[in-house]
Design a protein that fits this description.
The N and C termini lie far apart (39 Å). 64% of the residues lie in helices and 0% in strands. By secondary structure, it is an all-alpha fold.
Length: 110
């Protein structure tokens, strides 16, 4: 019998869809979604009670503030390291390759 928690999924999107199906309440709070993602998918086994989690700042608010610093103010400390920039470039290339291939297949379908 396959354990749902160890079942391999290919993409983050598939992982999120699985979590939404398994735990519909995660749709209501990104913090819960992130916690369940980190717990079930990434293997972080420190679980914060939801009552405590709700007191925490929304992840999007934190990342939005970081993007503002990085993109608008161009502060040196907000710039990622060269290794991270290279990894992001590879991920961006993979993203474009995946979605351009997918679009071609969808275009062929119609």
């Amino acid at each position: 019998m396959t354990n749902d928690f160890v079942k391999q999924r290919v993409t983050i999107k598939e992982n999120v869809e699985w979590l939404i199906e398994k735990y519909p309440y995660v749709k209501n709070d990104y913090r819960k979604l992130l916690q369940m993602y980190w717990f079930h998918i990434d293997g972080l086994k420190r679980f914060i009670p939801f009552e405590e989690l709700q007191k925490m700042t929304q992840p999007e608010s934190i990342t939005r503030a970081f993007r503002e610093i990085a993109n608008i103010k161009r502060k040196k400390f907000a710039q990622p390291t060269e290794i991270v920039q290279e990894a992001r470039a590879i991920q961006e290339q993979q993203f474009h390759t995946y979605y351009s291939d997918k679009k071609r297949k969808e275009d062929d379908f119609w």
